[in-house]
Structures are given as C-alpha cells and as structure tokens.
C-alpha cells in the first residue's frame, strides 16, 4: 500500500507500528459508532506522518501554508506535528478531504465541535493496541462503551500530566473536555428522567 511506504520512509519503526495500530483502532471505532470507515483508516494511518520530521521541518510546512499558530501552539512543539501532518497529507500526498484534514489536524488537542471522524481518530490514538500506559486497557474498554467518556478520561489524564510538568494546555483541549463532559451529564440527566 502506497501510504505505508511513505510512513516507512518518514517514521521510526516504533511510530510506524503505532500508525498501523491507530489505523486499526480507528476502523474498529468507526464501525462501532458509524463513522466513515475508509476515512478513519486513512486518517489513522497518516495522523503522525510528520511526527518524526523534527521541529524545523514541521514549522516550515506550517509557515509555508500561511497557517498562523496561537501562542500556546507555538510554545508546545508536541502540537506541531498534527498541524504539519494535515497540511502534508493534503498538499504533498494530495488527499484533498477536509474531514481527513481536520481529523489529523486536531488529533493531538481535540477541539469543541469535533466531527464523529475527529472523535474516532482522537480516541484511537490513545486506545490503540501498542499503547501501554497504566490505564490503557481501562480506557480501551470505556471507548467500546462511549466515545464521549473515552474523550473525558483521555483528556483528564493528559491535562493532569501537562500541568504537573509545567506545560501549557491548549484551549481546544479544554473546550473538547467541557463539551464531552456536558454531553455526558445531559445524557445522564435524560436517562434519570425517563
Ligand atoms: Fe500524534
Ligand atoms: Fe499518534
């Protein structure tokens, strides 16, 4: 498959394996929740395509495209690869699909108003089979039951970790957290009333 050859060239072995696993996890979640399976497969496969390219190359592709970073985005190099990756996939690989663009663009931070495909790729990234952090298995089980719950759990973990390490937290991430939490609470209220 041609995209896998691109990944082989651009990624370390570990990241290549991660990309394959995220693609598989995204397909599983897409089937379960009714997102576009083929788009989930492609976005999952390519979400980290720029991750091993280095900060300079990431910034260059972002700046060449005319994208302006916020102060928080600029302060955190970890956030560059999603933005650069989305641009690379569109402009270099020629996959001109706004849904795939956004799924890659926001896979690290999330945002308010994520599409179903964005949520699928966001959650697939931290529930894929190669992930081995302490609660990985717990979050995997949660993701089978509710995407919103998996988003809240995943972001709670990430934000706590960022704050402990004196790192900035992207407002998009907080927006995604609040929105998913409110959706869960509204759903719980509704179930109580029924
Ligand atoms: Fe990533
Ligand atoms: Fe990833």
Described by strand count, sense and barrel closure, the largest sheet is: none
What CATH architecture do you see? Orthogonal Bundle
Low-confidence spans: none
Number of structural units classed as domains? 1
Q: What order do the helices and strands follow?
A: HHHHHHHHHHH
Average pLDDT, rounded to a whole number, is: 96
What is the fourth-level CATH superfamily? Hypothetical protein af1432
Quaternary state of this entry equals single chain
Strand coverage percent: under 5%
Rg, Cα atoms, Å = 16 Å
Give the overall shape, derived from the CA principal axes.
globular
In CATH, the topology is named Hypothetical protein af1432
Question: Which helices and strands occur, and which strands form pairs?
Answer:
Elements: H1 2-10, H2 13-33, H3 37-46, H4 55-64, H5 71-75, H6 80-91, H7 98-105, H8 116-127, H9 136-145, H10 147-164, H11 171-193
Helix pairs in contact: 2-3, 2-8, 3-7, 3-8, 4-6, 6-7, 7-8, 8-10, 9-10, 10-11
The structure holds fe (ii) ion (FE2) (2 copies).
In short:
It is an enzyme of class 3 (hydrolase). The protein has 194 residues and is mainly α. The chain has helices at 2-10, 13-33, 37-46, 55-64, 71-75, 80-91, 98-105, 116-127, 136-145, 147-164, 171-193.
Written description of the protein model:
The model has no long low-confidence stretch (mean pLDDT 96). Helix 2 runs antiparallel to helix 3 (37-46). The longest helix is centred in the C-terminal third of the chain and has 23 residues, at 171-193. The N and C termini lie far apart (49 Å). The protein has 194 residues and is mainly alpha-helical. It has eleven helices and no strands. The chain binds fe (ii) ion (2 copies). Residues 18, 22, 47-48, 125 line the site of one fe (ii) ion (FE2).
